[in-house]
What does this fold into?
Amino acid sequence: MDEHGEVVELYAEEERVARVAAIDVGKAQAVVCTRLPAGANPERRVQKTFTVGATSGAIADLADHLVCQEVELVVMESTSDYWRPYFYLLEARGLRCWLVNARDVKNVPGRPKTDKLDAIWLAKLAERGMLRPSFVPPEPIRALRDLTRLRTALVAERSRHRQQVEKVLEDACIKLSNKKEGASDLFGLSGRAMLEALAAGQRDPRALAQLALGKMRTKIPTLTEALTGRFTDHHGYLITTLLQLHDQVDTKIVELDARIAQAIAALDPTPPPDPDHPGRMPLNERLQEIPGVGPACAQAIIAEVGLDMSVFPTPGHLASWAKLTPRTIQSGAKHTHGPSGKGNGWLKGPLGQAANNAARTHTFLGARYRRIVKHAPAKKALVALARNILEIAWVLINDPDARYHDLGPDWHERHANRTRKTRQHVRELEHLGYTVTLAEAA
It folds into this structure.
């Protein structure tokens, strides 16, 4: 350590990045560690640690300082959302920023744990090339992410309001949500009309049952019995409040749908007519051609993955990043598979719903699910199907002229090895004690 409090170390051969900076991010402040060459001697390193605030002005001053020091790489841990101001402002200043997973930079056991030591450790790992950056999409995709994630949160909130309405009806001994005797959809046209009438003060079960529309009118006798209860003014106030909250959230969801459609159209506009590619379509529509993938799922894939597939060299890389690939565990002659991992829940959720929808279809993906579920749990089969959907989406995003063509539910049967399948069935019959003689059918 010299007279200025700067640590000088010898430059090791395995170090790869000459000028690095590491930031241990916090809510109110952050500790920065820079490691730079010591003057004209490249074999010596100058290490300096200092604290900066979390305000925009302090981060801007830090960016100017790092630019003056000719820092080549800035790394930081993904600590909650506190890394965002540092990453965005430093990136806008022209610095190359890496966001790294905290799991990959854990300190070695036995060393003390402080913010200063964490920043130093992070800088040493970065300059030796021992870190890999996490995927941070560009700003337009980040804006689209905010919209799709907010819509997902609002849809969940709307579902909670509907469940609370059902809870109030159960407290009032109203069995309107019973599919057999009442309404299959509590918030359909008939169910909503009955809820509003109850909230307005109507208590006669026969009058409420007459509000049924369409096919529900055949259930008027059972509806009359289901609507007989102890509904009071207190329940009416609760229903009125919940319906107002439900409608407010529903209105915002409709607004978000329109805004998301505009954002996706700006990112991936409708391609102009091309005689060489007459079937060219926008990406959002091409993704919906995959069985089980609806508009919301297609929008979530675009928002979470982005449009630049150079980040993921192959479909397998994308599936591994999304944690849809089982972890390989090998020790000696033993080969097992571990859990796939947590992954991006905003992406895995829609993919899981799409896989669940595709599993019930008479398509190649549906046939693949039925083949897997014969020898594996249903949840593992759905994860495998979600991986297939994401890999297909990678191809469609990577090639703007690609279209999804279903292989058909009988693809596996048409490409089965006839000799191998015959030998397998003969062997199984012989194990049961039969003598098998094969003859070609006429």
Q: What stands out?
A: Residues 141-267 form one domain. The two ends are 93 Å apart (CA to CA). The CA atoms of residues 63 and 90 lie 6 Å apart. DSSP finds 16 helices and eight strands in the chain.
